[in-house]
Structures are given as C-alpha cells and as structure tokens.
Amino acid sequence: MRHLTFGTLALAWCWVSVACAQAPPGAPDPALERYAKPDVLAPVGDGRKIHIICMGHGTPTVVLTAGLGDWSGTWRKVQKPLAQRRRVCAWDRAGAGFSSPSPEPQDILHTTRDLEKALKSAQISGPYVLVGHSLGGYESLLFADRHPHSVVGMVLVDPSIPDQQRILAQGGTEVSGLERDHRALQVAAMSRCAARARSGALKLGSPDPDGCLAFPGDYPQSLKDALLPSRMAPESYETTASLIENFDADSTQVMNAARNYGKMPLIVLTAGITVTIPSQLHPSDAAQAAFTHYQAVDWPHAHDQLAKLSSRGRNQVVDGSNHPIHLVNPLAVVGAVEDVVAQIERR
Questions:
Q1: Stretch 170-183: mean pLDDT, rounded?
Q2: What is the C-alpha separation between 107 and 233, in angstroms, rounded?
Q3: Sign (positive/negative) of CA torsion 244, 247, 248, 250?
Q4: CA separation (Å) from 41 to 53, 93, 204?
C-alpha cells in the first residue's frame, strides 16, 4: 500500500527489511557519489550529531525532509537542480545516513527538535522553504507551527496526513491489520539485525537472512563503504525501529486544529497512480505494499484539506507517479519549489 511503510520505495527500507535480500540489481547512480561522505555534522547535545548536506547559495534556504526509513540521498534528483539558484539542505534523522543514533523515542516531537537544533548549530538560518515527503510532511508542518516567522513557503510531497492512523482504522480491519503487520515485520527484522550486530555475528560475508548489510542496487561502492559502519552499529537499527513504532503517536502529535498558515505559498503534490489493495497479502509480500494506495483514504481529498491550510495553497496531482514522486518525477518537485519561491519573491 502506498502509505503502508510511510516511506518511499521498498528499497529505501533495504537495510532494515527482509525485502533487502531480494533487492534487484541496478547500475550505480553517479548522483549518489555526492552523498558518499558527510557534509555538516551538527551537534545537537548528548554527544550526538545530525548530518546535513547543503548545496548552492542564496535565500530562502530550502530544507528537504525524507520519508520514514529514508535519508538525504533520496533527494539526489531534486537537490542539485534546485541548488543552481539557492541554498538547499537535506538532513538525516538520528540513526540514518551519517547521523548519530539516539536513545530518545523517535516520534516527530524529538525528530523535529533534532532538526531545529541542527539548523541552529550549523548556523543555517532562515527564511526557510520546507519540503517534506511522506512522514517528512509531519515534521515540516510541526516545524512551521513552531517557527511561523522563519518558514515562508512549503511543498509537501505525497504527505502523510494528520490523524492518519484513525482514518485508516475506519477503512476496516484488513487495512489496519496489514499496516500493523507490516510495521511489526520491519521492527522484528531490525531487532534481529541489532542483536546480531551486538553479538558480533553481523559480518561481511556471513549469512544475512534479514538483509542487514545489503544495499539498493543503484548505490555506488563508495556509498556502501561509507554507510557500512552505521550498518554494523546495533543502535542504528534500534533508533529506526523506534521511528517506525512511534508512527501512531506521530499521527496524533501532528494534529493542530488551530493550524493556519495565512497567505504562505503552499503546494501539495499527490501521487497520481492508484493500485488497489489485494484481498490477501502474505507477509513476504509486505514490501510490495509500499506501492499501492489505501482504499481507506481519499488521498486527493485529504491533500486538498492540507492545501487549505493556506489561502494560497493548492493540491497538484502528479499523473504517472506513485508515492516517491521525487524519484519518479523529480521535475514535478523542482517545479513546485520554484513556484513557491517565485510567489515569495513576488510578495
């Protein structure tokens, strides 16, 4: 299902999913070479650091927030084109990419606070245009609530919606049950990876039934080598497991009946491809569920409601694209951000 993992492609889960072992081969993507070494490691307290990679110069600063289970490299087709005219920064949540793991609960209250601290520590000042995909839409909304004078525009890329879990539950036990089962599978796989890493059994060349050390086929070797240390750390798996486990809380925490962004430029992008839910879904097919829509939610209507948070907001359906619009049709995302910035400049 499209929002089953609340992330992007199933392969984005590769290091935490049983789907990883079956990751299809692919040619290395040279655009990912730029993400093969850390850029800014911003201290956020308690010895932890949040990684931010910035490109370009100019204002406003565009802040890219990935979906659940994903990291800054997912923006490779969007960040460089946008950086030709302005500063564009993507960040990694705790335990992802080059960011330190965290012992704190990984709900959006904590992840958004990490973003706030990282931007301040790295002296990446506003005004900001926030771009959030899927779960990243939650952090974008919450950040804008907290910093109304710094956030001047927003693009939400096929975002999750406030109160999503309750809405999904209204769709029936099949939908909510599949979603819970899939998350449980992900958490269980990561727990096994963490246990093997802690025991020392997780090694290159050793049996890896959960795909703990596997990477998507388009990752160049330099990126695999750079990310491998985090794959060997049990805390990284535990941190991301916490992120998944807290999605129910996120869905509630992002709710704000008083939210109103006035005339702030806001564009919501909605995936145009709809695939129905199969009547039966075996756990081994759970990763494939990331590509289908929940029948329980009218996503275009739900995204219309998000667009109405601003009197200048609009929802735009991206025909021919599924959930990871920024990978399938990056020009749609680039165009939306440029549109928002143009509106800001006219004001």
A1: 67
A2: 21
A3: positive
A4: 9, 12, 27
Contacts of 310 (CB under 8 A, 6+ apart): 154, 261, 262, 263, 264, 265, 266
- In-domain check, residue 337: yes
If you write DSSP's letter for every residue of 261-297 in order, what string do you get? -TT--EEEEEE----PPPS---GGGGGGGGGS--TT-
Closest CA to 34 of 98, 86, 106, 101: 98
- Does this model's pTM top 0.85? My answer is yes
Asked if residue 28 belongs to a domain, the reply is yes
Cβ pair 163, 255 in contact under 8 A: yes
Total count of domains within the chain: 1
With beta carbons less than 8 A apart as the criterion, state whether 63 and 254 touch.
no
| 149 found inside a domain | yes
Domain holding 59, by residue range, is 10-346
Q: In this predicted model, what pLDDT tens digit does every residue of 34-71 receive, in sequence order?
A: 999 999 999 999 999 999 999 999 999 999 999 999 99
By residue count, the chain amounts to 347
Classified as helix, coil or strand, 321 is coil
Q: Cα dist. 319→269, 273, 323, 332 in Å?
A: 10, 7, 11, 10
The stretches of 126-233 forming alpha helices (DSSP H) are: 136-146, 164-169, 173-199, 221-231
Phi, psi (rounded to 5 degrees) for 340: -60, -45
For the chain, strand residue ranges (E) read: 40-45, 48-55, 61-65, 88-91, 128-133, 151-157, 266-271, 313-318
Radius of gyration of the chain (CA): 19
Yes or no: say if 145 and 333 are a contact pair by the CB < 8 Å rule. no
The CA-based dihedral angle spanning residues 32, 113, 271, 278, taken in that order and rounded to the nearest 10 degrees:
100
Report helix angle 136-146 to 108-121, nearest 10.
60
Pairwise CA distance, residues 214 & 208, whole Å: 8
> Strand, coil or helix: what is 165?
helix
Report yes or no on 320 lying in a domain: yes
